[in-house]
Batch of 2 targets.
Target 1
Amino acid sequence: MRMRKKPWARDMIQSREDCVIASPEELKGTWKSLGYEHVIVEIGAGKGDYWINMGNMHPEELWVAVEKSVDAAGIALKKSIDRTKANMKFIVGDAALISQWFAEGEVERIHLNFSDPWPKKHHTKRRLTYSSFLNDYRSILMPGGKIVMKTDNSKLFEFSLVSFAENGWLLREAYVNYRETAHDEDAITEYESNFIALNQPIYRAVWEVVK
Ligand SMILES: C[S@@+](CC[C@H](N)C(=O)[O-])C[C@H]1O[C@@H](n2cnc3c(N)ncnc32)[C@H](O)[C@@H]1O
């Protein structure tokens, strides 16, 4: 669903110099110099709930959110004003550019949390698990690096399982009802809790890169 325009979003993004990285290409190859051994990237952070929760739960990891919609980014940055720790950074931009921002092997883990499903066939290339994205992820991940995906959408999940397999990734974990058992290490956003309340299964998989 298209989001209503937020005329204040650009100002909000500009005002959040504490966490917004305006020129991420300047940090390429030096993200760890911000003081963290573990560089984690969430692609498609939307209104920021997962990034805010996970960044707060894991202060020992650098959590970098990537979001291409200025309006969604504005909401995320407004919502996080009082909940942004030093380990939380935000890039407003298209993940298609990700290899311009991170160097070869610089990232330990990428999260795709409830990505847009893009159900129409002519939008296949926009899915964040399409092969062109997987190639970029492969280059920025360290050896042994992982992608963690969670979704309510069975069609996107199936597409992703095939896409990763065809591109030579190792499937390390797969769940067709992730919330059947407790997983306290992984944040449940309001969006996800709505699905859980409706008894809809949450799909989750973890793939390891082969370099
Ligand atoms: C459903 S929201 C994600 C919610 C969020 N991850 C969470 O769990 O709270 C999906 C977001 O992905 C963003 N997105 C889709 N394609 C993208 C791309 N190529 N680069 C960056 N963001 C993208 C969309 O703009 C949208 O805000």
Note: The chain has one domain: 9-17+46-208.
Target 2
Amino acid sequence: MADKNPFPGENNTGHFWDDNLRELANPPPRWWMIGFYVSILWVLVYSVLYPTWPTLESFTKGVLGWTQIGEYQKGVDEVEAVRAEFEQKIAGMTAKEILADEGLSAYTEASAKVLFGDNCAACHGGGGQGGPGYPALVDDDWLWGGSIESIEQTITLGRKGIMTAHGKILKPEEVNGLAQAIVDGKPASSPLFLQKGCIACHGMDGKGLTVLGSANLTDAIYRFNPEGDETLLDSVKYTIMYGVNDASEPKSRQAEMPKFGDRLSKDDIKKLSVVVFKLGGGQ
Ligand code: HEC
Ligand code: HEC
């Protein structure tokens, strides 16, 4: 073929197309060849150091003894070591002391989010915003008191406020009058508030008593909010007529905070108390 080569002296393969299109046999550039050999070397070194080649039963382990699960475990151990330090401190402190310690309360707030999500969010909402029949935990309006101790007690022992149904005791216009006074934010302005015994549980001024978990009726924050196309007046009238947790009234509102004392550890309850306190600007 050499004699037919129209480009003598050129390092081509002797393949030609369209007169002058031809395949050359130049060696690849030097830098490329160096990269090529280095990558072969890399594979060899790597396969000696790290797990690489499959064998019939398993694979070559590499002289460094590195494993993916080992790397993961190391990470977990590091996190655990940091956590253990906090957890140990928490075990020996009261919820109030944890709250007072800036670092610990920040740790608690971050680490107890999952606890809140798993145990409380179904009723109180993911951010503690509350829901139909479930009080909001993000405001500073408390049925049972917002001190860290009260909150801890609420979570440990549960709560069940009881308001007797008044539908059979009051005339419809009396229910109306009381409901209107409450919606106006001045329950005590209605003489019925005293006459019909509301003050026994809600206090003279209607601001509620935390020992009974009776709601503050003057602050325009409602524990039972209107549902569907109900007006606020309707929903207040409903509470007055059918009460809350009144076993003798089938239409009574149901509202029970379950107790967690037998389900969660003391430390978890302390943490949740701190979380709830911080959510709601406890007091
Ligand atoms: C099954 C629903 C349910 C679950 C789960 C639940 N709660 Fe409650 N919670 C309630 C109800 C209902 C009330 C109101 C009780 C009442 O009206 O007396 C309440 C009240 C409270 C209160 C008192 C609020 C106040 O204004 O004084 C706190 C604090 C609270 N819950 C925290 C929690 C925490 C923390 C968890 C998770 C460990 C939790 N709850 C899980 C239903 C629930
Ligand atoms: C035996 C005690 C008791 C008596 C008497 C009582 N209440 Fe209540 N009331 C409660 C409790 C406890 C709650 C809160 C229940 C809960 O949240 O679980 C409540 C809640 C309410 C609510 C709901 C407030 C909200 O935030 O949604 C209204 C309205 C109300 N009461 C009005 C009255 C009126 C009016 C009277 C008098 C006719 C009255 N109550 C008498 C204990 C009582």
Note: The mean pLDDT is 92.
